[in-house]
Write a structure and sequence with these properties.
Strand content: 25-35%
Oligomer: single chain
Distance between the termini: 20 Å
Number of helices: 7
CATH superfamily of the largest domain: von Willebrand factor, type A domain
Structural class: alpha/beta
Radius of gyration: 22 Å
CATH architecture of the largest domain: 3-Layer(aba) Sandwich
CATH class of the largest domain: Alpha Beta
CATH topology of the largest domain: Rossmann fold
Largest sheet: 6 strands, mixed
């Protein structure tokens, strides 16, 4: 959703799909802590172009020792100077842009305590997946259940595959949220080079059956908070209790009550 400030020619602020979906489902305004303007006369409604190693070439620059030589452009530069073959001064490298790659990581609590809110979870996740699919964002899903947390879906843009895997989820067992924090931290480390922007969404009642105050868990939670652009904690219950507030404080997350 876009909102303009000032006249019609002013900057356009684009809310990223995770929080835009939360606003749509919940039905109340929500402003992210790190909302960034996308400048330009005609900004894309999908992904903002950024400098990349591969993509659409927009310009050339003098070649540097650490860069790649653009051979056709270097030959053209030599031709403009009247040289038969490129010399050291004719060598150039290209500057390319590509759509900004974004990864949305969902952590889903499918323990026994979430059995009453399973339908809410499916509705919200499906809406969020559709938003991510329209913007060609990659999605990863981590489930927390029993005594462990596992990656249900590795980063993918296939909406059908994600929904198929979600249909196989069954509710039951404990809530080891410490394992879930470790899992999303590993995903962030593995894919942060491929995805400059990573958003985290945790859908849980925060009633962890394992301690969250250990030094290792808190250290991983701080790294997740620093490495992700936005961390959102969704409360599927009817009210916010101390468990949700404590988990939001651990992750420095934005807390949203879905049923308000």
């Amino acid at each position: 959703m876009r909102s303009r400030t000032g006249n019609q020619s002013g900057p356009v602020h684009v809310m990223h799909p995770l929080l835009e979906t939360a606003r749509t489902v919940i039905g109340r305004p929500f402003v992210p802590r790190r909302e960034r303007p996308v400048r330009g006369r005609h900004p894309s409604r999908f992904r903002k172009p950024v400098l990349a190693k591969q993509g659409r070439k927009i310009a050339v620059r003098p070649w540097e020792q650490t860069g790649r030589i653009d051979i056709p452009a270097s030959i053209f530069e030599a031709w403009k100077r009247g040289h038969l073959q490129p010399g050291a001064r004719d060598l150039v490298s290209s500057r390319s842009v590509a759509p900004l790659s974004r990864l949305v990581v969902f952590l889903l609590d499918v323990s026994e305590s979430m059995s009453d809110t399973l339908e809410w979870m499916r509705v919200w996740v499906r809406t969020a997946m559709e938003q991510a699919y329209l913007r060609r964002d990659s999605v990863a899903v981590v489930v927390v259940q029993g005594k462990a947390a596992g990656v249900l879906v590795h980063p993918t843009t296939s909406l059908g595959f994600v929904l198929h895997r979600l249909s196989e989820v069954r509710v039951g067992g404990g809530t080891p949220l410490d394992r879930g924090i470790m899992a999303i931290h590993r995903i962030m480390l593995q894919h942060r080079d491929a995805y400059p922007v990573i958003d985290m969404c945790l859908l849980t009642d925060a009633r962890s059956t394992s301690p969250l105050d250990t030094p290792e868990v808190r250290a991983r939670a701080r790294e997740v908070s620093r490495g992700a652009r936005e961390v959102v904690l969704l409360n599927p219950g009817s009210g916010t209790d101390r468990h949700m507030q404590e988990l939001a404080a651990v992750l420095n997350a934005s807390l949203i009550d879905m049923r308000r």
